[in-house]
């Protein structure tokens, strides 16, 4: 029988709340695998067992599990029955030999874990006996430090699982265990990564995109829809608000000093996103800001923008540089879409010399001459909602 044995890390530290986190991870695994008609997903002895039907390709299962937040790593195993009172390692040795015959290596080690301590053989006993057998039949060297290949054996109460590969997952917490957040998402590289990092900490993301429409085309909207569909593979159901922002920008350009335009845009975006966030019970807003990356992300400007929010404003990328952010975008698959050209609303009417050290008193004085509440109401009323599911 083929199985995936899923391991988690942080969930094991949750004490009395551990069952809640484990069950959420089981639920998310069911959502990730539902179209593959995988029905048996069970939590047992500090791990989760996913039984894989013969007709399902392993690569499909690997792809889904690698994107399930909360999964530290997993093994694709063959399982054999195990008699707890009189364990016979013969079948385990045969399966292990077959597993190794499919791999290329010069050195190996055997790592065994005994989940049920009633088993008379210790983990070291199993490692020594199976490792000795494999050394004899393959002629390969046993190397306990930095071997070419590690064979994993998991000994449960009624079965043993054998695997020659350990595949990393994203780690973190299961999506849905840390409430909802509203993520401001552009078509760029940063904001999808920021959203992903919050999902990895267990948050469910509601997305808000500000479009320059009607002053520009729908290019950025189509791009963001593609990015949200990609991110939905990590949380299985997403909602995206698209807010036409061009008219509001035009009003700001006509009635505010050029140097403060970008900060004003962002303060109004925060207020609109906050109103939409409250509809979904979100506890925070999330942006893709990285300290000092552009003029709007200086310490002074970040502080002035944050002052417009009543909800907490989270910036998971604040200490990352562009290389680190780009690497993570490539890792999650958003980079190729993010670098496609579009007409971003934040690039409309950008002054040659934007303010980099905006003072709160200056921005409040300017805002007193603008219809801020009208802009917020207009943005909320014109917001267009789309939903996304995975598998689609």
Automatic annotation (TrEMBL):
Keywords: ATP-binding, Cytoplasm, Nucleotide-binding, RNA-binding, Thiamine biosynthesis, Transferase, tRNA-binding. This is Probable tRNA sulfurtransferase. Catalyzes the ATP-dependent transfer of a sulfur to tRNA to produce 4-thiouridine in position 8 of tRNAs, which functions as a near-UV photosensor. Also catalyzes the transfer of sulfur to the sulfur carrier protein ThiS, forming ThiS-thiocarboxylate. This is a step in the synthesis of thiazole, in the thiamine biosynthesis pathway. The sulfur is donated as persulfide by IscS. One of its GO terms (molecular function) is tRNA binding. ATP binds at residues 184-185, 209-210, 266, 288, 297. PANTHER family: TRNA SULFURTRANSFERASE. It is found in: Cytoplasm. It comes from Nitrospira defluvii. Its EC number is 2.8.1.4. The lineage of its organism: Bacteria, Pseudomonadati, Nitrospirota, Nitrospiria, Nitrospirales. Residues 59-166 form the THUMP domain. Belongs to the ThiI family. Pathway: Cofactor biosynthesis; thiamine diphosphate biosynthesis. The gene is thiI.
